[in-house]
Amino acid sequence: MVEDPLVTADCLQITREVGFDHLLTSGKPYTTSCPLPFQADSVKTARDVTRSTLRGWGLPELGDDAALVVSELVTNAVRYAMYARGRREITLLLMRVVPHVLLAVADPSDDVPRPKEPDFVSENGRGLYIVETYSQCWGWDPLAHGGKAVWALFRTEP
């Protein structure tokens, strides 16, 4: 995927200004935060919260793509961060920053997410490829007390 340098700059600026540690506990009107346990049905909960939040923000057209990306991010957190030390939950965060929606999943693992070359025959390993394909851009930020937030950015206006 070839990225526009301005898109990348917007993306990095938004995530650095936001500060995930603060947002995960703030409860601002332009954010939705949802704690999720380390279990498989957290993926469905995350999809439902994402769709509901986007409908409430008047952005139902983002629902399917955003729910797919959130599914991949939460699945990765459940699969790879379950045995990390520290917090015993995952946190889903959605934030409206016009003209963007930022989705993030925080987990207690310090492991850096690494995309794999997509293998369309295997049953796993395509998660970050899907995140990259459906979002404008994605990345991750370390959290102050350990762990990370893996995020994806969606543009809401053409």
Q: How would you describe the overall organization of this protein?
A:
InterPro entries: Anti-sigma-factor_SerPK, HATPase_C_sf, HATPase_dom. This is ATP-binding protein. Pfam families: HATPase_c_2 (PF13581). The chain is α+β, with helices and mostly antiparallel strands. The protein has a single domain, classed as Heat Shock Protein 90 (2-Layer Sandwich). It has helices spanning 5-18, 20-26, 42-56, 63-81, 127-134; strands at 31-36, 90-97, 100-107, 137-142, 148-155. A 5-stranded antiparallel sheet has the order 1-2-3-5-4, with helices on both faces. A hairpin with a 5-residue loop joins strand 4 and strand 5. Helix 3 packs antiparallel against helix 4 (63-81) and helix 4 runs antiparallel to helix 5.
